[in-house]
Amino acid sequence: MLTATFLVIGLAAVAAAATGFGFNLLSAPLLTFVYPPQRVVVLTLLLGGVASGMLVLRSEIRRAAEWHVIRPLYLSSIAGMPVGVALLLWGHPSVLKAAIAALTAVFALLMLMRVRPRPRGGALEPIAVGVLSGVLATSTSLSGPPVVLYLVARGLAKDRFRGTIVMYVFLTTVTSLVLLALGGAIGAPTVGLAARLVPVLVLGFAVGVALAGRLSERGFEVMVLGFLVCVGLLGVGAALR
Fold first, then answer.
1. What single string gives the DSSP state of each residue in 166-177?
2. DSSP letter (8 states) at residue 178
3. Out of 56-65, 81-90, 137-146, 147-156, which region has the weakest mean confidence (pLDDT)?
């Protein structure tokens, strides 16, 4: 079990550093095959916070972040987080597991098909996206998908997109962990497991950074996204058996 966990975390760190894909998006659905969904959510948030924190330390990420976009999304996400905490604490494990897998598959499929939503430009749009992201952050650890689609719709340049999503995910991850800790959802065994996995995450991150300049970005994205679609569909099937 621990060997499989090490492998998943290492591969997720490589993919996240090389392509900018969410660490949680890759690790969460795979880890639900090994651990209960509540533990997976806490574990991936803890490690995802480390992963996004490592990216935030890079000056080019901080310079590229669009704070006028981040601010309304993040403030709105806080309103949705308590709902996600309730779903995590009292929701049925098989439903949570299916939700994580389904969200992963749908998001990966949309990105593979290069779906580009059309923004309406209304003031309520970022609020709705932020609230949904907050609910997903604390219930599944997957805060990124609705915000990624929103940023894609806004047509941000690549560096601005990356800086903005990294800073947003870092902020929502830290806030989610605070709320989950207050709700008693973070246990010492999960924290201990996360600490044991940090060296693997750091190693995978370093490998991903080294590979980033040598890979065809779109080719690698297609491979990772295709893999995520398969993982998500298998996860839904396993959860609903």
1. HHHHHHHHHHHH
2. H
3. 147-156
